[in-house]
Amino acid sequence: MAMMIKNWITFGGVDCRTYKVYISGNGTFNSPERDTTKISVPGRNGDIALDNGRYKNIDLKYPAFIAEEFSGNMEAFRNAMLGKIGYQRLEDTYHPDEFRLARYKGGLDVKPLKSLVAGEFNITFDCKPQRFLKSGETAVEYTAAGSISNPTEMTALPLVRTYGTGTLTIGSVTITITAAEGYTDIDCEKQEAYKGSTNCNANIVLTNGEFPELAPGANAISFTGLTQVDITPRWWIL
């Protein structure tokens, strides 16, 4: 007899196995929808589709079951999930090299067995469209000019840490760091510069007001004045 493979999720640090919850991941391979605006023009066949340059959130539903001590585990699991507010890190065993940012939508349509020993239900998340690669969480350290290669087809928005003052060029975008106490973190997704809880936006100057991006393929990196640059690339796919 083949051994049943059990799969699970972790969400905001909550490991569903703690509550004897296991999942199926049939819907985890779906992709998000491109955000477009359709315009109908009188007298013209078809619609004009305007691309808004983004992807929409996607609902992710995991069919789940508890096979032991259903009543107590179900209550504890429900409370643990509802205690997580806003977007949290979501991982599952179907995609061990990836994670999502997700918001638990709440609500459980539970179907317990008559014995109340086991039961089935769905766990539904509102997910941001990106599937982030765990390999993109590791910072790459530079003490001299070099390059970084984006292995995906998606442009990434890195977290950059610079040490000291000077200029940094990533691709065609140059940042000038005019003042720093040790280091400065430049978050290209949030479009902010900071050190810890201190905002440092006033200490950077951007070329044409643009933050750096990491395009697919090789991206050149050079700097002057700075002693070190660390780049956490944040690779992602759909």
Describe the structure.
The protein starts with 8 loop residues before the first strand and ends with a strand. Strands 1, 2, 3, 6, 7, 8, 9, 10, 11 and 23 form a ten-stranded antiparallel sheet that branches. A six-stranded antiparallel sheet has the order 12-22-14-17-18-19, with no helix packed on it. It is globular. By secondary structure, it is mainly β. The protein folds into two domains: 121 residues, Elongation Factor Tu (Ef-tu), domain 3; 103 residues, Jelly Rolls.
List the helices and strands and how they pair.
Blueprint: E1 9-11, E2 14-15, E3 21-23, E4 34-40, E5 47-55, E6 58-66, H1 70-82, E7 88-92, E8 98-104, E9 111-112, E10 119-127, E11 131-133, E12 140-142, E13 146-150, E14 159-163, E15 166-170, E16 173-177, E17 183-187, E18 192-195, E19 198-199, E20 204-206, E21 217-224, E22 228-232, E23 236-237
Antiparallel strand pairs: 1-2, 1-7, 3-6, 4-5, 6-10, 7-8, 8-10, 8-11, 9-10, 11-23, 12-22, 13-21, 14-17, 14-22, 15-16, 15-21, 16-20, 17-18, 18-19
Search tags:
23 strands, mainly beta, 238 residues, 6-stranded antiparallel beta sheet, Jelly Rolls, 1 helix, 10-stranded antiparallel beta sheet, Elongation Factor Tu (Ef-tu), domain 3, globular, 2 domains
